Amino acid sequence: MKGLELAERYYYAYGKGMVEEKFPELKGRVAAGLVGQGSECLGFDDNISMDHDYGPSFCLWLTRKDYEAYGEAMMEEYRKLPKSFEGAEGRQESLHGSGRVGVLCIPDFYYGLLGMEDVPENNREWMGIREASLCTATNGKVFEDPLGEFSRIRNGLLDFYPEDVRIKKITARAAAMAQSGQYNYARAMKRGENVAAKLALAEFTQNAISMVYLLNKRYTPFYKWMHRGMKGLPLLSEIGDILNLLALMEEQSAAWEGVGENDYLYTLNGNDKCVLIIEAVCNLVLQELAAQGLTDEEDNFLENHTLSLMEKIKDPYIRSLQIMEG
Description:
single chain
């Protein structure tokens, strides 16, 4: 059973009754669900995931005032709940897995993930939060939230980045994809710098994946799950399959044998299959950028679109940031 389903069934079997019976004074004030760190919150957990941080568990979120008055007592009752449930043994927490479930304070929960207790108030604050952190703060499922305070913040975050911030991040990804994949990969291969070439491909892949999420207005997950999560995206999910081909591609040194310093300065080495894959990914991204009205340039080199993208930003502060910042 998936961890998220297990958590919900466990809450309604034992948790809800515990809260209502032991803490009647908090009726209508406790949010319950499973959100945060862990593959189960993304729905990506499998049999391999069960070796740590898996088992019957859920989160109970309280306002600061309620947490200070009842948090410790409620956590004591939470610990008394049955450890095994529907064939799943008690949660075995890893060294870094403690504190993810149980009774939590709403502002502290968000501060621990985002560095702030509430929805960012301006573009500067939004720019300072990592995509993966926002994904972690908005994943999983809220089983119920009668007070609505936890969901108020959650929904504000799910509205996604303000458009100026999104465009700035798209600009940074376009610049990084061009630099790593369309420019430095070839230069590294010409020099026989195989490690540098692999690093360039990794940089390109990570930025390409983030670009796809940004174009979908979805937050990019933690690196371990960012490729897996592309399968469920409505736009450009096929790029995930293309990047898988890039990851599995055999070594391409033979395509660069006999190449001189000035060869392929302004053309592509079509003998290198990685080059062809990179260009295919960039072309698909450019088509979507045009479809969203973010560029009207036709050049396949992504760096040549960055100025056009920056011009779409209205906030003077965001527009003043360095091209690759974001």
